[in-house]
Design a protein that fits this description.
about 250 residues, alpha/beta, putative 2-phosphosulfolactate phosphatase, 3-stranded parallel β-sheet, 10 helices
Length: about 250
């Protein structure tokens, strides 16, 4: 029998379309797309995820002097201004320039989830606020890690597990054994555990260690949830946003 309130953790690359057919999907790409998106909006910058380079090009033409931020296969596309880097975005003073954000798996996940229901951009920066917003929005919540190279990476697992554990405390049952096992594995673990994972190793090996430091140094420091609205990542300004109300540009203080 299906519980009245449930939460399930899956991986975008492993889960096909089924996990995205939910009223509320919490999208996680800690290294680095959702962390970059949250960081951009917290700074006062508008952020428009693109699911592909083909989507990014016309979007850039429609915006005034956009900042092109992203990677495909780990490489910054030709003509882009920045890598998919929360540390680099945080350092930019030109917050008036809207960001177009493109990544291998994180932004396609956001785009796909937004087509089915409420798509929340969650990272370690705002994991508890994301959990609370999703719980208010839907009785059945999907938590989906972006995945990298066919793997459900440690950083997305820990963020998803912490969110699921908070939802469970609020009355959501674990939808399957895999979700319960992930929560048990990561419950109480220090965030530094993700520094030994394959994603962190890749960032170190490619000279992008500043993003590891940024992620580890910004945990639950943003008391606001962020949701996809009309193609843009925006702050949720009202916890009761199940109908799409309470969405705007104002960011709540940490």
């Amino acid at each position: 029998m299906t519980p009245d309130r449930s939460v399930r953790i899956t991986c975008f690359q492993d889960g096909a379309a089924e996990p995205l057919a939910a009223a509320a999907t919490v999208c996680i790409d800690v290294f680095r797309a959702t962390t970059t998106a949250v960081t951009a909006v917290v700074a006062g910058r508008r952020c428009f995820p693109a699911g592909s380079l083909e989507q990014a090009v016309p979007l850039a033409a429609a915006l005034h002097q956009p900042l092109l931020v992203g990677e495909l296969g780990g490489n910054m596309p030709y003509g882009f201004d920045l890598q998919n880097s929360p540390a680099a975005v945080a350092e930019r003073p030109d917050v008036w320039r809207p960001a177009i954000l493109l990544s291998t798996s994180g932004t396609p996940l956001l785009i796909a989830a937004a087509q089915e229901g409420r798509a929340y951009a969650a990272s370690l920066r705002n994991w508890s606020a994301a959990a609370d917003a999703a719980a208010a929005a839907s009785a059945h919540v999907e938590i989906v890690g972006a995945g990298a190279r066919g793997e459900f990476r440690e950083e997305d697992q820990i963020c998803g597990a912490w969110i699921a554990e908070r939802l469970a405390a609020a009355g959501h049952a674990f939808a399957d054994a895999a979700t319960a096992e992930l929560v048990e594995r990561w419950s109480g673990r220090p965030v530094e555990a993700i520094a030994d994972g394959r994603s962190a190793a890749y960032l170190r090996d490619t000279g992008q260690g500043k993003d590891i430091e940024f992620v580890l140094g910004h945990v639950d420091d943003v008391a606001c949830a962020f949701v996809m609205s009309a193609g843009e990542v925006v702050a949720v300004t009202d916890a009761a946003d199940a109908e799409g109300h309470g969405v705007g540009r104002k960011v709540l203080p940490a």
